[in-house]
Write a structure and sequence with these properties.
- There is one protein chain.
- The radius of gyration is 16 Å and the shape is globular.
- The chain has a single domain, classed as Rossmann fold (3-Layer(aba) Sandwich), CATH 3.40.50.
- It contains nine helices and five strands.
- Helices cover 50% and strands 16% of the residues.
């Protein structure tokens, strides 16, 4: 069975997490943030150490580890009754991060829409990430060099995912707007695609 899915997509600091948390509170939408799943791993967990090693340098965690973590979490959420694939739409945030991951997930996901939260002002994203680092004690957002590396990785690797899904599924939304206006656009499109 393929999971009915929408993807929240955009550079670090574009607002994926904000929109995902809100959407996850809507009945029949289940939000999964890959970065949160990695950050919730314990440091003594081998995968937790892999995450720290890569994220502290602004690099993406290897594909097999990322997809494995995703599968483990989705299975656990299904068993726990948090996610019911029969009636719920999966809202993915932070996965797939590159075309290879999109290909690896192709047999699992029925992608209905990709919400590309576009922010043309990289300084605004850096500001958002630094504020988040203070608010949420996130190491991957604290160091300016790491932030720049993450934005560079997004441009070089992650952005290609949009080409993988193609223009019929991608909806670009101006992420420099206030979050409520971004949400309004997302909901208007969402109502048509699920």
């Amino acid at each position: 069975m393929k999971y009915r899915t929408i993807l929240l997509f955009g550079a670090p600091g574009s607002g994926k997490g904000t929109q995902g948390k809100i959407l996850g509170a809507v009945p029949n939408l289940f939000h999964f943030a890959c970065g949160d799943a990695f950050r919730n791993l314990r440091i003594d967990d081998p995968l937790g150490r892999v995450f720290i090693e890569y994220s502290s340098k602004g690099m993406l965690v290897p594909n097999e580890a990322t997809i494995g973590l995703w599968q483990k979490n989705i299975k656990a959420s299904t068993v726990d009754g948090e996610f019911n694939p029969e009636v719920d739409t999966l809202v993915l945030d932070g996965i797939p991060r590159n075309p290879q991951q999109a290909l690896m997930l192709q047999d699992f996901l029925d992608v209905r829409a990709v919400f590309n939260l576009h922010c043309s002002d990289s300084n605004k994203m850096v500001e958002r990430l630094q504020r988040r680092a203070l608010r949420e004690n996130r190491l991957d957002d604290a160091n300016l060099e790491v932030i720049r590396k993450r934005l560079e990785t997004y441009e070089n690797e992650t952005k290609q995912v949009l080409d993988f899904y193609g223009p019929k599924l991608v909806y670009t939304i101006d992420a420099t707007q206030p979050p409520v206006k971004v949400l309004r656009e997302v909901l208007e499109i969402l109502a048509k695609v699920i």
